[in-house]
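General statements about sequence and structure are easier to judge against a single worked case. Part of our work consisted of pairing the sequence of a single chain with a tokenised description of its backbone. The amino acid sequence and the backbone structure tokens for this protein are reproduced below.

***
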Amino acid sequence: MAAQDLDRTAPRPFPDITSSLSPEVGQLPAGMAPSMVERVALRIESDIADGALLPGTRLIETLIAERLGVSRIPVREALKSLEARGLVINRGRRGTYVARPLADELEQLVVMRATLEGLAGRILATEGSEDDFAGLDRLNEAMRATIGAGDPKACLDAHWAFHEAVCALSGNRFLVASWLSMRTLIRMAFQTQPIFGGDLVRETASHDRLMTLVRSRQAAAVEANLRNGILRSGFKALGRPVPAALAPLLTEEPVDG
């Protein structure tokens, strides 16, 4: 791994939407100061999610420690915590590497994400407030602004912020924790896929259509649109058909995932 891979003086944090609900991914509970190990783990995870550290990249403890200004001990412990979550893999004397999820694992992630976001959307459409809806509108406008600025990376971040907010606004902390546990794996797997970096205008338009359904309290339609869009786009990115067992669920015009 080149030294510049970790030469980031101010890594971009994940969107601070669920900071009180995500102790192990991206943010720590409000009021809790992160330990040195947690800070190092969050830094490495942020670089993995952003694509600065791609699958297969070797993570050298001494280099990471030097770039972050810490000893090797917190780096070693941070890598252990990331390995437990499937983000890195330790190959013994060959070193530790950013994980490269298998295709079957990615299928499972897509299915779980579709299920969780669909359910979150149903809850939001049923119980959400106008303030909740306005917050999602602002996130979508932020995504639209990044398109005008010609910043596809910021647009991708805004896209994920919108979907994370849908989950957070469900108010179900176990649903949110499950979604957050998969977030970095999904981002690292699809970092280079054109499905998330192609027609960005269409992405924001799909969010607009979703919000129309949400505001009209069409809970079943919201669930179907989110679930179907994520299934279709996810399996398209994998180059695989949606499994036959899930095909009966694809009954509505999807909102892109």
About this structure: Residues 1-33 have pLDDT under 50 and may be disordered. The longest helix spans residues 103-127. The radius of gyration is 19 Å.
